[in-house]
Amino acid sequence: MRIWEVENIVPSEIHEVPNSDGMTPRELFTKNHEKLKVEAENSMKGTATSCTVVGALIVTIMFTASFTVPGGNNSTNADARMFLVEKLFLIFIISDTLSLVFSTTSVILFLGILTSRYAEDDFLKDLPTKMFIGLFTLFLSIATMMITFSAALIIMLEEKYLWVVIPCIFVACIPVASFIWLLFPLLIETFVSTYGPGIFDKRVKRWVKL
């Protein structure tokens, strides 16, 4: 929606001046972009729906993992006390918590997109901002989820089984990396189109002098 950028360099006195058909610039813009607006709405809904499902799955997994101690529940009290001070266990807890927070945040934002009014003004800042933050927090939740998985795997198999742990972590990261690779261009495009430079240089002067 670049009409607002045009409005910034056009004198306010002619913003509501109708054309030969009796339509103001805003009305003409709305009429000519009805199809584009519908396509953008459907695209955002589709992306938000898919990401909501992924985020909800991560929330479920991380919430369950927070109550599951890696290594089983057969340790003695002494072993448990030693286990609590292990750095890997701290990494497991911290990354699990962060993943839960990030995924919950992304789900809330994507639900906000799905329940939006999809008015013209919403496409200017509100919806792109929600989409960008939602995707960004979803990526963070995936990254911290993989850290949680890696820490849990190392804790359970111990150092002597690192030759098994490393390939398992690598294989598990392949589908995750594929998902991020597919959505990362959308994240960058959303950020640039919303917060990047406009279609006009900032030094452009008004073309009509008052």
From TrEMBL:
Pfam families: PGG. Residues 43-155 form the PGG domain. The keyword Membrane applies. Keywords: Membrane, Transmembrane, Transmembrane helix. Signal peptide: none annotated. The keyword Membrane applies. GO terms for cellular component: membrane. The chain crosses the membrane at residues 47-69, 89-111, 132-155, 161-184. This is PGG domain-containing protein.
